[in-house]
Amino acid sequence: MSTAVFELHPDVAESQSPQKGLFQQLAENRERQAKARIRSFLLGRSDAGLAELGFSPNEISAIRVTGAIPASFWR
Q: Which of 3, 22, 37, 64 has fewest C-beta within 10 Å?
């Protein structure tokens, strides 16, 4: 019995990425859904409401621009 070994040309090997598995696709979808819910929650709050949650004025400004919790909040 013989075994054939084929190598892809380096340009072809780099351009083809493996398909994401089902679990990875599900995890990414749930993360997108969670970020959308958080964005909706944050953008629906007044500045005073965000301040009550512990956000500084600079962080509130960042939330208004990005719709996401700034990294500085976690420090």
A: 3
